[in-house]
Structure formats: C-alpha cells, structure tokens
User: What shape does this take?
Amino acid sequence: MMISSKQLIAALQGSESRTAALDRSEEVRSAQGMSEQHSRVVRTDDITLSSRAQEVMKARRALSNMPPVREEKIAEIKGRIEDGTYDVPAEEVAEKVISRAVVNRLFSDGGE
Assistant: This one.
C-alpha cells in the first residue's frame, strides 16, 4: 500500500491535534488541582423493572428451561389418535382449558 505525502501529513497533523487536546485536558486538571485518577467520573445506570416485566422475564426463563419437543411422544400420540385408542378424560381437558384461560388473563393487557 502506498501512502502519499498528503496522507502522511494529514495523519501526523491529526495525531498532533489529538496530542495537543490531551495536553490541554491535563493542563486543565493540573490547574484545578486534580490528578488524572481523580478527574475520572464513574457513572452507573440503574434500571427498575415493573412487576409485570419481572413476571414476563420469569416466564421466559421457565420456558427456556423446558425440555425440547419429544418427537417420539408426538408420534406415539398421533398413532393412537389415528387408530382410535387415544382417550383423554373430559375432566383433564376442562382443567387445562380453565388453567390456560387464567394464565392468558393474567398476562394479557386487561389483566391488571
């Protein structure tokens, strides 16, 4: 790669201006009686999540910890449905429908 004299001069001038700016900031700190160590300010950000946001995060963590879909179990149930041997008690179906409705109500916008 060839660097022209103009590029070299521009790079050196940029370096000189950055060095001069650092020197000026050091002069200001010295004039104010501050060392470089004391002139640095550490800022931290705080974040507060609503209780709803915390619940959503908790639910997401729970979902991410669930085991993957069990393909063999799905295939077994499909086979039982096809040959007519799959039976689910109505009580279990009703319980699931109600529990899901409650969860949906809690996590919907109208649940507060």
Summary: The radius of gyration is 33 Å. The chain has a mean pLDDT of 75. The chain has five helices and no strands.
